[in-house]
Amino acid sequence: MIKANHHPFFVWFFRFYTNIMIRIHFRKVYVEGDIEKTTNPLLIVSNHFSWWDGFFILWLNNKLWKKRFYVMMLEEQLATRKFLSRTGAFSINRGQPSARHSLKYAIEILQNNENLLLMYPQGEIRSQLEYPVHFESGAESLMKRSQPDVKMIVVLTDYFSFRKPSLFFYIKNVNPQNKKINLEASFNHFMQECIERQKAKVITDH
Fold first, then answer.
1. What does the DSSP assignment read for 3-66?
2. φ, ψ of residue 183 in degrees (nearest 5)
3. Neighbours of 186 (CB within 10 A)
4. How far apart (Å, rounded) are the C-alpha atoms in residues 78 and 64?
5. Per-residue pLDDT tens digits for 138-179
6. At what angle do helices 99-109 and 138-146 cross, to 10 degrees?
7. pLDDT tens sequence across 98-116
8. What is the pLDDT of residue 204?
């Protein structure tokens, strides 16, 4: 596996780059839900529908939680973009024996209160319109084995009557101590709530 190897310059550069790119390409950013800071390690699970996704959560972390950022990526993708390991990316090779080393590494990450780990349990980019979403088992197993603070984040975009899209983050806490929780079912229930809230929005401000 490829481990994360944070480098101060790359961390700074991608923070700067992310802020600029979101400012250029999105008209406004809206954040709703459980945004409070935490002194515990933080696990983020989110929907995965675009090239932008990692930048979205990196931006949100820089604005709200300011933790050391980690993200799990498929090894075949990270191998061609190894520089991303300098910003906190590490790899997993799904379906291979080495995957257990990646999950062990993820557990180690979530032992440090300064860390945030982002996972996309869908495992691959899917249409924003796909519902319900289907999760691989890794994120739920990790949540129950390490018991960090957990936030589900649904990310949606809409143009309304403007040239640029607006970006919407919906955030909800999960109780990792609930032994009966089904993360996929919980996320789908939350996503349906977010879609209904999104459908009710009429953005007409200038």
1. PP---HHHHHHHHHHHHHHHHHH-S-EEEEE-----SS-EEEEE---STTHHHHHHHHHHHHT-
2. -65, -40
3. 18
4. 26
5. 888 888 888 899 999 999 999 999 999 999 999 999 987 777
6. 40
7. 788 999 999 999 999 999 9
8. 67
Residue type, 115: N
Considering the entire predicted model, what is its pTM? 0.94
Three-class SS of residue 100? helix
Q: For residue 11, which of 79, 86, 62 has the smallest C-alpha distance?
A: 86
- Residue type, position 166, single letter: S
Which superfamily, per CATH, for 8-199? Answer: Glycerol-3-phosphate (1)-acyltransferase (3.40.1130.10)
Question: Percent helix, strand and coil across the chain, each rounded to 5?
Answer: 35, 20, 40
Residues 31-60 have pLDDT tens digits of 999 999 999 999 999 999 999 999 999 999
- Residue 133: both structure tokens together: 């979403």
